[in-house]
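Today's session is about reading a structure prediction critically. Students often jump straight to the picture, but the first step is always the sequence itself: look for stretches that repeat, for charged clusters, for runs of hydrophobic residues. Only then move on to the predicted structure, which in these notes is written as discrete structure tokens rather than atom positions. Here is the chain we will use throughout the hour.
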Amino acid sequence: MIILKSTLGRLPSYYCEIENRLAKGEEYVSSTSIADSLGINPVQVRKDLAGISSEPGRPKLGFRVDTLLEDLKIYLGYDHYDEAVLVGVGALGHVLMQYGGFAKYGLDIVAGFDREPREKKVGGKMVLPMLKLVSFLKRTHIKIGIISVPAAEAQGVADLLVAAGVQAIWNFAPTTLNLPDNILVKNENLAASLAALTTELRRRQ
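Below is the predicted structure for this chain, in token form.
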């Protein structure tokens, strides 16, 4: 079964919710219960989980929590590690490199790169000058690049990453990247998210 991009965007929320329920000692969870907790239509949750669960839900009980959590972990790739490099070790870059929670979701930022590194290590990871980025990527064959540079520099950094063999980019720069169709890109525009939040807040007031 093909999983739609919209469904994939909801699965991490399901994972966190089900993980919390496992920690509480719950054995079964229904799609309706998940939907109520996350504010999602239960029919949508049921359809989403049907595409990834290895066991069908039981009448009046729902899905086994431990089995469903494992199914989600495997589908989302949390059961193995992907290595990544981060470019732009400024304020945001520091936070990303120091955040230990990525390991839980199968991501290991092995090194950071900056035009003028101020520190040799951040979060226990190397911080290297940009001049060493291409040779590092060609030596390690890392396929994921994280961009946290100013918008004006992001396209140049992305082009450099792609030329060095990176196949997926997690972009935190507030700009749209122009890249080949075969490159996976996930944009995290913090300014746009904040604008949407504050606009909705004003509308409610």
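Discussion point for the tutorial: The longest strand covers residues 107-114.
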